[in-house]
Design brief:
Layout lengths: L2 H14 L5 H13 L3 H6 L7 H15 L4 H5 L1 E4 L2 E4 L9 H13 L7 E5 L5 H9 L4 E6 L2 H13 L6 E5 L10 E6 L14 H4 L14 H13 E10 L5 H10 L3 E8 L5 E8 L2
Parallel strand pairs: 3-4, 3-6, 4-5, 6-7
Antiparallel strand pairs: 1-2, 7-9, 8-9
This protein binds S-adenosylmethionine.
Length: 281
């Protein structure tokens, strides 16, 4: 079997399994299985696969057809120019979260915060992207999942920012001390009842990373209430939220009475996906 035949066969197989971008995913999976770049598939299409390579491609194809997300099969993802290793213990970082990082970096342009807290760090995506953007900043990255923290620490190391980030196992703020100029979180915010009807790929991600309780606001409420004790004067809180949570999140922010300003902001597709609040003195 040649590379060209394998690519055609894999594309058809994935299409039959209702994978949306079958050709692109076939290219990525085949290149991954063969240890090549995607371009190499087209530069040497007549190259023959070994029996072992063939077996590897088949195994990946079957897992993808059964709904395992592409990113878990590839084992890594690019997030805001940071390469992150992934496992099913961590959420696959999303483009909206990259937009949140972009927004934060823009807001602090020229005056990066000194102390940052990333709550629910998962793969470490937000903490590592911010550490790379702000080499003088110290970051605490917390998660309740030991498996997630192990992956996040490896990612910090492979991106050369391990000295800037302290990883802490914590149930939100429970194991933390000190105060922060910036608190950021992409918390679990889906309604528990909605989890059974999400895409099959999302069902492969950790429930702990997605389940926000009956109304989706359990984690958000705890993070906002706790910020009263952990946010420095003039400090800022940024949250990723679901598109229908904006008004309730704004009310939760205002109820703390510590914020001079609380806004709900849209992502690039016009959905209200972020909350930003600035603490008064
Ligand atoms: C939506 S994921 C976000 C992961 C990562 N920050 C990102 O943006 O890709 C939420 C994270 O919150 C963590 N988490 C859930 N409950 C928690 C809790 N009680 N305390 C701390 N972290 C928690 C999960 O383990 C998961 O890593």
């Amino acid at each position: 079997m040649t590379v060209r035949h394998a690519l055609e066969g894999l594309t058809e197989y994935l299409r039959g399994a209702k994978v949306a971008s079958a050709r692109l995913e076939a290219e990525m999976l085949l290149a991954h299985a063969l240890g090549l770049d995607r371009l190499d598939l087209y530069l040497r299409p007549e190259r023959a696969l070994t029996e072992e390579q063939h077996r590897r491609v088949r195994a990946l194809a079957q897992r993808r057809a059964q709904g395992e997300p592409l990113q878990y099969l590839l084992g890594s993802v690019l997030f805001y120019n940071v390469k992150l290793r992934l496992s099913p213990a961590v959420l696959i970082p999303r483009p909206e979260t990259e937009e949140l990082v972009e927004l934060i970096v823009k807001d602090f342009l020229g005056a990066p915060p000194q102390r940052v807290l990333d709550l629910g760090t998962g793969s470490g995506a937000i903490a590592i992207a911010l550490a790379k953007a702000w080499p003088q900043t110290q970051i605490v990255a917390a998660d309740i999942s030991n498996e997630a923290l192990a992956i996040a620490e490896q990612n910090a190391l492979s991106n050369g920012v391990q000295t800037q980030i302290l990883f802490v196992r914590s149930d939100w703020y429970s194991a933390l001390t000190g105060s922060f100029d910036l608190i950021v979180s992409n918390p679990p915010y889906l309604r528990s009842g909605a989890l059974d009807s999400v895409q099959r790929e999302v069902r492969c991600e950790p429930r702990l990373a997605l389940d926000g309780g009956p109304d989706g606001l359990d984690a958000i409420t705890r993070i906002i209430r706790g910020s009263v004790h952990f946010l420095a004067p003039h400090g800022r809180l940024y949250l990723e939220i679901d598109a229908d949570q904006g008004e309730r999140v704004r009310r939760l922010l205002l109820a703390t009475q510590i914020f001079a300003r609380a806004e709900i902001l849209q992502d690039s597709s016009g959905r209200a996906r972020f909350a930003r609040a600035v603490r008064s003195a």
